[in-house]
Each structure stands twice: as structure tokens, then as C-alpha cells.
UniProtKB/TrEMBL annotation, chains A, B:
The record marks 235, 278 as: Lowers pKa of active site Cys. The active site is at 46 (nucleophile), 177 (proton donor/acceptor). It comes from Amycolatopsis bartoniae. It holds the Pfam family GST_C_2. This is Glutathione-dependent reductase. It comes from the Bacteria.
Length: 333, 333
């Protein structure tokens, strides 16, 4: 995998999401909400894709939207279905996610990213617009939410959620990549400083309240969680985000454990996929492709004490049940 | 710098020390103990060289044996005196340590390592045999030890010290390099497992006694210290020794802080040299040569509580005074 950086500044340049059609209840983009019609393609390694796995679980959309899990190791054709029998996704019948991109736009030669939602009948990619995907699962798929599903994007809190999401995106979700993929010291230094300044500010906020916005789990928590859960496993060492480990930031560590131990969060996390992806794909950062045996992950199961702050994780709703058997993960430590 | 590994196993192959003459009180190798005659060449980045810096300080040999500090960044000619005016060591008058190796053995084309002791009058390298260098400072230079110098290698404890030194060398001092320089997963895995098994065993031992052997500081503590003090700064991330940080291993962390805060230990440690050396020289491990800004080092100054275990750090002796002004280091955090 080649990591694109600006030759002048050494800053990592993230490719834009190209396919931004929306699947909506009214079908205005030509893609109506319809259970069984779409397939969500993810890598469990990828923090952007993992958001949609968490939201799908919390909302109980597992029956309505099936999931395809790509091999955590991409090759030059990007995400592959090499974990499946014969190396083909059993529903889409394709070997590479790129085939769905090609079906949607013949001749497409841009990036191939997850999460991606594919229209099963036509085999065409509908969207890889990850920030919109999770919001649409919350707001457009309501007819198929489970009984007791939480409202992850409550109307009256959207302003505050959007605002914090923007800061978390810039200074946390994206900043870890900007630190890790920087090709010049100054670009790294700037991303590192911005990251830890924001983590300090979030720690302060979360020392007084159990969740980021309001008193229930929202989209904002999910977006922070998918970076925090990867922090010690990959960002701390591989991306040099090493002022402290997450385990050394008491508030954020307790906050992350609280979410991890909530049904729908930790049961989507595959640390093996996460570690192998980052350490084996980014040869520009880790040329030996050796995957560290650490860190010791057992701390994720320890008591977090966050109940003392109050909060109602699912508001007036309930936690989801266990994941479907086909999606259950092996023990993580 | 090219890292030599076995093509079959991926194991790092350490070059032997080539020059093993000894400087002794009786001068039997042709190199008699004589104050002012020899120059100790070190890099403050290097754990092997740092042993001799600590021993020299503890024994008060600063006047008897002067020190040359090489630039932490080697080039293809190895250690350089680029920190000195005109890039020349002011005493030896050479630009590269390799010149002293050449003076000792014209045509020598093996490795150039620190610590190295050079005979000032002839400019010839005497020895780069680091395990013997520190023992000889303790046992052959006694006539020039300071008043109150500790006995770092007491006769009646030598068997026990030698035994623990052997285990610490194999499973700690060398194992971190074997983990970090492995070119195959299996070689890394083996070194990692051996390292942490030994650290667990040392933690257990040090939970009951303040120092490794007897109740005073000995050579054994110095050899463990120089690896532990580098652990979180470089071995944890750069060498993937990441089961835990040292800060997460309570006994070893307190033990390391106890030594760090003892005059003669922490005052020899330059974290800037350590980090720049490892991250900038080993391009096979860190091709971007970016140096992490972390970890937060302030914990090194926090109380360690090890006094409760008893022990007499300097036995019947006393701690050394501060380092000579010319060797004092800038604040480390």
C-alpha cells in the first residue's frame, strides 16, 4: 500500500469518498430502504467501517442489512474476500470489493474503501460515504430498528453531536493517521500535539459526564470509541501516538472500557484483524511486517466504575442481544 | 545502518567484540592503569556504553578517565564526533571513532562499537569489550576510586552476579534487540516471550529485595538499568516489546526509578540521544526516521517507595557528587 503524502509538508493526504448516494426511506437517490437488499462490506480492522458495525448492532439491523467481512490484509487490488470459501463473498459472488466499484462506475480507478454498501441485485456499490452511512442507519432505517433500539442521533442534540464529531474527526480519528503517515517530522509533531490536546480536553469533559453528549450513548461516542479501542493496539506504537497509552489516561480508559463492555461495541472488535492490518499493510511504516504480540488486552474486561456518573446508556431503550452466531468473534485474549 | 539477520531464521546476529585487551593494574596486556592516559568513547544512546558511564560516575573515575561523547546518529562510517567543534574529538583529534580502530589495526574493516577505550598518546583503540570494561573499572582501577566508592563487584557475590548478568544479558539486554531487529515473525515472537518471561521473574525477585544481588547496588543492577531506562522511550514501540510499558510493571518501574534517582544513574541518561539514535539510525525498522514526541518522561522523578525494602545503596560507601560541569546534561523533560 502506498501512503500518499504531500512532498512539501510531509502531511498525509486522505482520499475523498467518491460515492455519496444515500439509501433513504423515500428512495430519492434511487436507493430506497429495503431489508435484505443491501450488503455492508467492512473490514473489522478499519475504524471508519467499525462505526457502521457498532451502529448496526445497537439498532438491531443485522437481519435487515447483511455484512461481508473483508480480509484485514489488502493487496494491490485493495480489500479482498479471501476469508470466504473460494475467496468469494457468498452473497455478492465477487473476489474483490473493487468489482462492486467497477460495477457502479466502469473504468473507476480511484480508491477502494470500507465501509461500502453494495446493492445485492445489481452488484453495484451504492455508497462509501462513511460519515453519512451511520447517520442514515439511525434516521432512514427506523422502520427496521429493533424494539428498544436507542436514538443515536436525537434531533435536539444534533447540533452538539455534529460539533463534537467535527472536532473528534479532525483531532482524533484523522489525527492518528496524520501522525502515523507523516513523512516529515514537522507534520508528525503537529498531528501529535493536536491529538493529545484534544484527548486532554475530552478527558476533562468525560470526567464530569458518562457520555459525550447528553446522558445516553450517541453517534458521537461511537466515533470516538472506534479510535480509542485501537489506540494501544496500533496507534500508540505503529503511529507513534505515544505520549501515554490509553491505559495511562484514566478517564478515557474507563470511558472506553464502559463502551467496550456494552453489547454492540466490544462484540464487534477483532484485535487480531486490527493488528495484522496496520502492521502488515503499511510497509512504509513497518517494513518488516512483523506484528507485535502485545499489548496485554485483558484490561478491557476490568470494572470501569463509570456507572457512578449516572447516565442511561440506552436512554428509554434496551441493550441489544448477542450478535448473530455467524458474526460472533473468537475470544480476544 | 544495515541490520544483519540470519536469512533462514530472521534472527538478529550481533557482531562479536574484536578488541579484548584489558587495562589492568599490573599492565599485563601492555595497558597499565594510569590516570589521564585513556579516553572512554561512548554514545549516550547506547545501553552497552552507558554501563561504563554509570560505573565511572559511581566510582568517581571522571578525573582519571576522560570521556568523549559521540553523536547519537551514526553514518556509514559509524560513530562520529560531530557534536564537537570542527567535528573532531578535542583530545584524540579524530573525526570518527573508526580512526582509533584503524590505528590499532590498520586495514580493520569490522564493526565500530562503543564503549571503546582509546590510548590517548598513541591514538590506538585498546578495547571495545564492554562486559569486561566495567568489571575492570571496578577491580583494576581501585587506586583511583573516589573516597566512599561502592564495591560494585564484591568478591563473595561474584558467582551470583555473574549468573544473573548472564540471564539478564540473554533475556533482557540482548533480547530487546532480537525482538526489534528480527526479520521474521517467529524470531520476534521467541525473543518477546523470552524477554517478558524474564522480566516477570525479575519482578518477582525485586518485589522482595531492593537490589538484584545482596543489599547494595552492584554491577548486576547497572546492567539491568541501562535496558530498563530505554524501555518505554524506544524498546516498547520501536522494538515492539509491548506487552506492557515499564510504567505498567509496578515492581520494575519502582526499581528503575530508584536507580534513576540515585546519583550516577539518571545523571548519565540523555533521552534525546536515545530516541534520536534508535529512531533515526535503524531505517530498516523506521524508514520515515520520524522521532516520537512521547513518552511523557516526568514519571521518572516520582517517589518510588523502594526504601521500605531496606538495602543500603552504597553499602559502607557514599553516593557520588554531581557530575563534572562539562558532563552535566540539560533537563530531560
Amino acid at each position: 500500500m502506498t501512503i500518499p503524502t504531500d512532498p512539501e509538508t510531509g502531511k498525509f493526504v486522505r482520499a475523498p469518498n467518491h460515492f455519496a448516494a444515500r439509501i433513504t426511506a423515500d428512495g430519492r437517490d434511487g436507493w430506497p430502504v429495503e431489508p435484505g437488499r443491501y450488503r455492508l462490506v467492512v473490514s473489522r480492522a478499519c475504524p471508519w467501517a467499525s462505526r457502521s458495525l457498532v451502529v448496526r448492532r445497537l439498532l438491531g439491523l443485522e437481519e435487515a442489512i447483511s455484512v461481508a467481512v473483508a480480509d484485514p490484509i489488502q493487496d494491490e487490488r485493495s480489500w479482498r474476500f479471501t476469508l470466504d470459501p473460494d475467496g468469494r463473498d457468498p452473497v455478492l459472488g465477487i473476489r474483490f470489493l473493487a468489482e462492486a466499484y467497477q460495477a457502479a462506475e466502469p473504468g473507476y480507478d480511484g480508491g477502494v474503501s470500507v465501509p461500502a454498501i453494495v446493492d445485492v441485485p445489481s452488484g453495484k456499490l451504492v455508497t462509501n460515504d462513511y460519515p453519512q452511512i451511520t447517520l442514515d442507519l439511525s434516521t432512514e432505517w427506523t422502520a427496521y430498528h429493533r424494539e428498544g433500539a436507542p436514538d443515536l442521533y436525537p434531533e435536539k442534540l444534533r447540533g452538539e453531536i455534529d460539533e463534537i464529531n467535527q472536532a473528534v474527526y479532525r483531532d482524533v480519528n484523522a489525527a492518528v493517521y496524520e501522525a502515523g503517515f507523516a513523512s516529515q517530522q514537522s507534520a508528525y509533531d503537529e498531528a501529535y500535539s493536536r491529538l493529545f490536546a484534544r484527548l486532554d480536553q475530552l478527558s476533562d469533559r468525560l470526567s464530569r459526564q458518562r457520555f459525550l453528549v447528553g446522558d445516553t450513548i450517541t453517534e458521537a461516542d461511537i466515533r470516538l470509541f472506534t479510535t480509542l479501542v485501537r489506540f494501544d493496539a496500533v496507534y500508540h506504537g505503529h503511529f507513534k501516538c505515544n505520549r501515554q497509552k490509553l491505559t495511562e489516561l484514566p478517564v478515557l480508559w474507563a470511558y472506553a472500557r464502559d463502551l467496550f463492555q456494552t453489547p454492540g461495541f466490544g462484540d464487534t472488535v477483532d484485535f487480531d484483524h486490527i493488528k495484522r492490518h496496520y502492521y502488515q499493510v503499511h510497509e512504509q511504516v513497518n517494513p518488516t511486517r512483523i506484528v507485535p504480540k502485545g499489548p496485554d488486552l485483558r484490561g478491557w474486561a476490568t470494572p470501569h466504575g463509570r456507572e457512578e456518573l449516572g447516565g442511561r446508556p440506552f436512554g428509554d431503550g434496551t441493550p441489544p442481544g448477542p450478535p448473530p452466531a455467524a458474526e460472533a468473534l473468537p475470544p480476544q485474549w
